[in-house]
Prior knowledge:
By secondary structure, this protein is α+β, with helices and mostly antiparallel strands. It has helices at about 15-25, 45-50, 100-120, 140-150, 235-240, 250-255, 300-315, 330-335, 340-350; strands at about 10-15, 30-40, 60-65, 65-70, 70-75, 75-80, 85-95, 125-135, 155-160, 175-180, 180-185, 190-195, 200-205, 205-220, 225-230, 230-235, 260-265, 265-270, 270-275, 280-285, 290-300, 320-325, 350-355, 360, 365, 370-375. Strands 14, 15, 16, 17, 18, 19, 20 and 21 form an 8-stranded antiparallel beta sheet that branches. It is globular and about 60 Å long.
Amino acid sequence: MPARRRPIVRFQSAAGSAAAVEIARGSAGGALTVLFATADTDLGELAGALAAAGAGRVVGATTGRLITAHGIEARGVGGFHLPAGRFAAASGVITEVATISLPELRAHVHRLRADLETRAGTLEHRFALLLVDAEARCEERLAAVLGTELSGVPLVGGSAGDLYFNPLGHPPGNANLLGDGRSFRGAAALCLVASASPLVAYSHNHYVPSESKVVITDADPARRLVREIDGAPALGVYAALCGLPKNARNPRDFAPYPLMLRIRGQYYARGMQRIFPDGTLEFACALERGLVAAIARPGDMVGRLAGMFAEMHAAIGAPDLVIGVDCAARTAYMEQRGLTTEVTRLYTANAVTGFASLGEQFNSIHANNSFTCLGIGSGA
């Protein structure tokens, strides 16, 4: 078979050494292997087993849910192998990603771009995949810098971790990132990929911005906290606009009604993760004082997702693979509303492989409550 037509291989396995052997076998001679492991997987042990089995270039992230050829799964390891010849890749781990300097981050991107170009040959399409530890809480800055440095190259990514609605006092779990043959905390893995196949990327959500607008009047962006909205305590104002009791205390009740910001003509969601005893709200993305936001209302999740896939088919044909980064809050919404079966059907029909994330990156923007994805068309 010509190199440019080698198939993308998707995999799913139970965790453990058997998974490592299977993944290593599939990665041999490939351009890049990307894996997603549920949070009960010890990435340190998996990294060691992969190295012992002779794995090639592998990056990975933890999650609460996998998206595989079999649907949405709560346990195991899944992912995909990009074959050499049809793809070329350069990847690297950014350690201490929350504190890395701007010049260092730019230099890292430049090194990867130079590395990729030595491997790419005549492969004409490019994309970037970013996996970042959600505990680092630096995705806004990271996406802004990487998106700017990679201008013209679509970037999709997701934040790794296990709990979206993270309760107070929840202890940190295992390492959330895998790359360079090791497991990491507080890090990010950036992959630059050249492809013989056409590509298209989307940041999709099913929300409709309402006419209700609010102004953030007291916030701590570094900690992603909002204390006041429209000059009043944030919880009461937000609850009233969502149609909830003013004493509502379960973040899941607010999940269908994220705040929405309009950025360059597109609305991006900002969902709330935690309510503190004093009524301060913690969001999954930073919100600054003075921002104007719309209160969202949920639309037709299944219908709008089907429409996005139809748009993808029109752009690149039936995808061989869709790298899907689906916000964990959307997964919770599907489960609450009984939509998981219908959404899974669409994912299976469109070759989606990916994970439930604690935030999504799209070009230079960090969002959440989105399905951010990259579709790869058939081989050249």
